[in-house]
Design brief:
The complex is a heterodimer of chains A (418) and B (434). With 418 residues, chain A is of the alpha/beta class. Chain A contains 11 helices and 14 strands. The longest helix of chain A is centred in the last third of the chain and has 26 residues. Chain B is built from 13 helices and 15 strands. Chain B folds into 2 domains: 104 residues, Roll (Urease, subunit C, domain 1); 295 residues, TIM Barrel (Alpha-Beta Barrel), CATH 3.20.20. In chain B, 33% of the residues lie in helices and 19% in strands. Chain B starts with 10 loop residues before the first strand and ends in an 8-residue tail after the last helix. Chain B is globular. With 434 residues, chain B is an alpha/beta fold. In chain B, the strands form 3 sheets. Chain B has a 7-stranded mixed sheet with strand order 3-2-1-4-13-14-15, with no helix packed on it. Classes of the chains: A alpha/beta (418), B alpha/beta (434). Chains A and B meet through α2 and α3 of A and α2 and α3 of B.
């Protein structure tokens, strides 16, 4: 293949490492790889090379965004998972393709799918390989690991005991799982219990050891305290939600858990925005007098829970925990194509815009075990780039204004419905 | 999703340099269509088409272009890739992936001006689910007339899509089940075809079985269509009272071809439609000729090429005769099958001109006549008050040259302008002639 260079210049450039933006910067891309980065005056294509020059005035060049938590099966119209799962697999696959496009066209070049029904996510990835539909880079779990009746068990795995857990991990790896998602506590699934752990410690250990054996990382859903302790004991790699709620229902921050998370180098994906948005929507319904009795009753609890999440977010950061950015869309009433809502929520909860950008690029990539190839704009990495109008490091709202997206050096046709 | 061009109370007035309404043989200069919501309110010379006084109207003007009914493709395979792969291996692909491919193909159809399709052979529930997904707003597609999946004998053509049955009882059960699951008509393969285990020159079902199929379908108000790639299949299907004969090849069991005027007269007398599927028969020769430009063909490939050109010539000649005899010939592309990709329905329209249609009659064959063949003419196929506002804007005058149908500028489905996205989104793969 003849060398194909792109010289991309912009008013400023954020590399995703947290360094201050560089003014008048350039990125040199050869095929799918970044060859040089720096002030425009210093970045040049090799003599005699064919170069496509693209200049973005008034814009900032960033690493492609990395959403470390999505559910592509989701519709994002507020329907609970228990209802979503009733849709036939073909329809869920079609919806997943739509969601993948929405995320890609809005700046996300890598996503981690934390679980869909049956083989829908694996089939979507195969269809992307076949050129049927476009998508960001996808790091997929396939189906989540759940106990009988546990959170997300209807997606296809309800395992009991070490042997079944090990078999399920092997089956997922065989089908193409890049990582293993575990629901370590109950959740919004009707038959699950939020405040209680799900798998026993020996089961968790079996799952995580088996995943690690095959070089797969593990991600655990934990909306209550004991679940976090259990997965930390078992050696998990990322904790999702990380809500400090005791079995009795009380929200109580535990500094000892933060200490362990930090010490073990576990990533935390707090999913602030989806909880906030759901709460805001219920509040709007209550104000409008259209809320159901159950919704009304849940509002106060939601407010306390969200407050606890923000508190935990701030204290975990202080305690040295790496917070990674994952939207959890299109769960509940948050459609995909709106990863930015989580980046904004991180700023609202106390990060600087630059810290939130690093969280949504480099650090998320780290939690995917992909920091060698994506997450920052550095020589030798994959040319996944997003062009943002304005300067998001000054005002994070600018992160919504996506002007262009490059995936593996290719400019994404964001108007393509095919 | 189709973009909402108008608020619910707004009329949509589309003017164009020419209007082909699909009914009249005459092109109306400076024509217009008035639509409200999904329906056509009025159509005719622009001077006579007006919104009620005081009503809010969105006006779109296409001077120099032609406004005409959206096209109706009577024969599609949305599961397909059109890259030469046989149906046998297509069926190995998981249903979820075929549903995604169907969604992609459905956009190719819609974006190139086809607003109604009749699907002739998808796997299992793939197209029924696609339609559900369209209704849920997940993806866009033309109006779909679905068979569910085709009905075949054991090992018969397209058995791998899920419709193998034997005997009158099983056939009745299968037809009822298809209709329960959402089928709009029943597709049957009355002879073998390209399926490896089938015999294209021999009939498949017996007449009693075919009769059970048509009767059960008709009793439930549904039409039937039969794949017939050899003569006995045609006569069996006629005995059973079939509504449409697909391919309509007069091949004999020994592989020769013998056109029968008598059978053609029977088709005419029974009022069955004929969908000759001509371009699909030259699409593989075209692909082989292209290969031949790059390298010499193997002996087998050359034999296949010679045979397929011969077969195509027979089909063209027989179709010319059927046109001459006044049979009801309609457009159905048969894409994406073998090497014919969806998004190229116009090839088949061109072929109808090649076998003797006037340009205007070819336009009708892909609009009102096709709609009639599907029993959809009360709903679509022409621009008349009360019908669905499925319309396209074409550069040039298709009544003078159907090749202008390649230049679709704008598509309206049920009164809404279809958002067709970027150039890349609208691009379709055209196979070039050798």
């Amino acid at each position: 293949m003849p060398a194909n260079f792109k010289l991309i210049t912009a008013d400023r450039f954020i590399d995703g490492t947290g360094k201050q933006p560089i003014e008048k910067a350039a990125v040199l891309v050869e095929n799918d790889v970044i060859r040089a980065v720096g002030p425009a005056s210093s970045v040049k294509a090799p003599d005699g090379a064919q170069v496509e020059k693209i200049d973005y005035k008034g814009a900032t060049l960033l690493p492609g965004l990395v959403d470390c938590h999505v559910h592509m099966n989701g519709i994002g119209d507020g329907r609970p998972g228990d209802e979503l799962v009733k849709l036939p697999d073909e329809i869920l696959t079609l919806q997943s393709a739509r969601n993948a496009r929405a995320h890609l066209y809005n700046g996300v070049t890598t996503l981690r799918d934390c679980g869909g029904k049956n083989r829908t996510i694996f089939h979507l990835r195969e269809a992307v390989r076949m050129g049927i539909t476009p998508a960001p880079r996808m790091v997929v779990a396939g189906r989540p690991m759940a106990i009988v009746g546990g959170h997300l068990n209807w997606f296809g795995i309800a395992a009991t005991g070490r042997d079944e857990c090990i078999a399920a991990v092997r089956q997922l790896v065989k089908e193409g799982a890049d990582f293993i998602k575990i629901t370590a506590t109950g959740g919004s699934t009707g038959t699950s219990i939020r405040t209680k752990p799900s798998f026993n410690p020996d089961e968790l250990k079996a799952i995580i050891d088996e995943a690690h054996k095959f070089g797969r990382h593990t991600v655990a859903h934990c909306v209550s305290t004991q679940g976090m302790i259990n997965v930390l004991d078992a050696g998990v790699d990322t904790i999702v939600h990380a809500i400090h709620q005791e079995a009795g229902g009380e929200f109580k921050y535990r500094p000892d858990i933060t200490e362990r998370i930090a010490k073990q180098g576990v990533f935390v994906n707090p999913t602030l925005s989806i909880v906030k948005k759901n709460m805001d929507n219920i509040e709007a319904k209550v104000d409008a007098g259209t809320a159901t009795r159950a919704e009304q009753a849940s509002l106060d609890e939601s407010k306390i829970a969200f407050e606890a999440m923000v508190n935990g977010f701030q204290r975990m950061r202080k305690g040295g925990v790496t917070i990674v950015c994952g939207s959890d869309t299109a769960w509940l009433d948050s459609p995909m194509g709106r990863f930015q809502q989580e980046i904004e929520a991180e700023v609202d909860a106390g990060m600087t815009p630059m810290e939130a950008i690093v969280s949504a690029t480099r650090d998320s990539a780290k939690s995917l075990w992909m920091e060698d190839s994506i997450g920052t704009v550095e020589t030798g990495k994959k040319a996944d780039l997003v062009v943002i109008k304005g300067d998001p490091s000054k005002n994070i709202k600018n992160i919504w204004s996506v002007e262009d997206v490059f995936l593996a050096g290719h400019r994404v046709d964001r108007g393509n419905f095919v | 999703m189709p973009a909402n061009t108008a608020s619910p109370d707004t009329f949509l007035l589309i003017k164009a340099g020419r209007l082909i309404d699909g009914v009249s043989d005459k092109v109306i200069p400076n024509g217009a269509v008035l639509a409200k919501d999904n329906k056509i309110v009025a159509a005719g010379p622009a001077s006579s088409v007006q919104a009620p006084e005081g009503a809010s109207v969105e006006v779109l003007d296409y001077p120099g272009k032609t406004l005409m009914p959206g096209m109706v493709d009577c024969h599609t395979h949305h599961n397909g890739f059109g890259d030469g792969r046989p149906g046998d291996s297509l069926a190995d692909i998981p249903d979820e992936i075929l549903a995604l491919q169907s969604a992609r193909n459905a956009r190719a159809s819609l974006f190139t001006g086809v607003t109604t399709i009749r699907e002739n052979g998808p796997k299992a529930y793939t197209m029924l689910r696609l339609r559900d997904a369209v209704n849920a707003g997940i993806t866009q597609a033309p109006r779909t007339v679905l068979c569910g999946w085709p009905v075949s004998i054991i090992g018969g053509h397209m058995w791998f899509f899920g419709g193998q049955v034997t005997g009158e009882n099983e056939i009745r059960g299968m037809v009822r089940r298809l209709i329960k699951d959402g089928a709009d008509y029943i597709k049957v393969t009355a002879t073998g075809g390209t399926t490896a285990t089938s015999y294209p020159l021999l009939p498949s079902f017996n007449v009693d079985e075919l009769t059970a199929l048509t009767r059960t379908a008709h009793d439930l108000g549904k039409l039937t269509a039969a794949h017939c790639s050899s003569e006995t299949g045609i006569t069996n299907a006629l005995d059973a009272g079939i509504d449409m004969i697909i391919h309509c090849m007069f091949r004999q069991p020994d592989g020769t071809n013998r056109f029968s005027e008598k059978i053609a007269e029977r088709i005419a007398k029974q009022g069955a439609y004929v969908n000759p599927t001509l371009h699909v028969q030259r699409s593989t020769p075209w692909a082989l000729e292209e290969k031949k430009r790059d390298r010499s063909l193997t002996k087998q490939e050359q034999q296949k090429l010679d045979h397929m050109w011969q077969s195509y010539e027979w089909s063209m000649e027989d179709s010319r005769r059927m046109v001459g005899m006044g049979l009801k010939i309609i457009t159905g592309s048969d894409s994406s099958w073998t090497d014919y990709k969806l998004g190229n329905a116009v090839y088949e329209v061109e072929q109808l001109v090649d076998i003797g249609f006037t340009n205007m009659n070819a336009v009708k064959s892909v609009t009102l006549d096709a709609a009639r063949a599907l029993n959809m003419d009360k709903l679509v196929g022409s621009l008349e008050p009360g019908k669905e506002a499925d319309m396209i804007i074409v550069d040039g005058d298709p009544s003078k040259d159907v090749k202008t149908l390649w230049n679709v500028n704008e598509v309206f489905l049920a009164g809404k302008r279809v958002e067709r996205g970027s150039d890349g989104s609208r691009a379709v793969f055209h196979q070039s002639p050798p």
